[in-house]
Amino acid sequence: MGDLKKAKSDKADFYLVCGPSGSGKTVLSNRIIDMNPGIRLIDADNYYKIINGDECIRDNIFEVWMKIFEDIHSCEIKEENVLLSTAALTAAQRNQFVVWFPTFRHHILWMSVPREKCVEGNMNRRRWVPSDVMTKQWNEMEFPNASEYGWDTVTHVTHNWKDSYTLLPIKGHVDKYLTI
Question: Which end of the chain has less neighbouring CB within 10 Å, N or C?
Answer without folding.
Answer: N
